[in-house]
Amino acid sequence: MFSRIFLTLMLFFAAALPAGAEDNPIAVRMKLFTDAYNAGDAAAIADLYAEDGAVLIPRGGIAVGRDAVAKHYAAAFEAGVANLQYKILEIRKVGPATAVEIGETRVLIKEQAAASRSMHVWVFKDGEWFLSRDIYQVLGAVKQ
């Protein structure tokens, strides 16, 4: 009995959702994120975060809450960050209302391309998936 429960739990926690599936609701939300980013719409990006969502800023602080998240992205746009290209590598559901998504990005920073990796923790609330935690690592400049 214990082994059957253990196996069931292991399969549940290890199940990876298809990363690029167009019908995956998290992939759909990341498309909205990318579109808002490329439109320079910090408020629309912030709306994709949970009310207490947070961005863990590399070599910086933590932007907690939608207002702080919007300010973070507005500052990035003001600094010349644009043209987000986002590739989902994996989406893994880790509970009935929680998923982890890993991706790679490329952006332009004043005409210089830069790459990064991200890990997003998503929560399902009120019928929608929201970003709860967003951590990214800037890998550095890349050739365009």
Keywords summarizing the entry:
single chain, 144 residues, alpha+beta, Nuclear Transport Factor 2, Chain: A, seven-stranded mixed β-sheet, 4 helices, 7 strands, globular, disordered N terminus
Order of helices and strands: HEHHEEHEEEE
User: Uncertain runs with pLDDT below 50, 5 residues or more?
Assistant: 1-20
CATH architecture field: Roll
Instruction: Estimate nothing, just give the exact number of structural domains.
Output: 1
Mean pLDDT: 87
Radius of gyration: 16 Å
Quick one: overall form? globular
Please provide a brief summary of the model.
This protein is α+β, with helices and mostly antiparallel strands and 144 residues long. 31% of the residues lie in helices and 47% in strands. It contains four helices and seven strands.
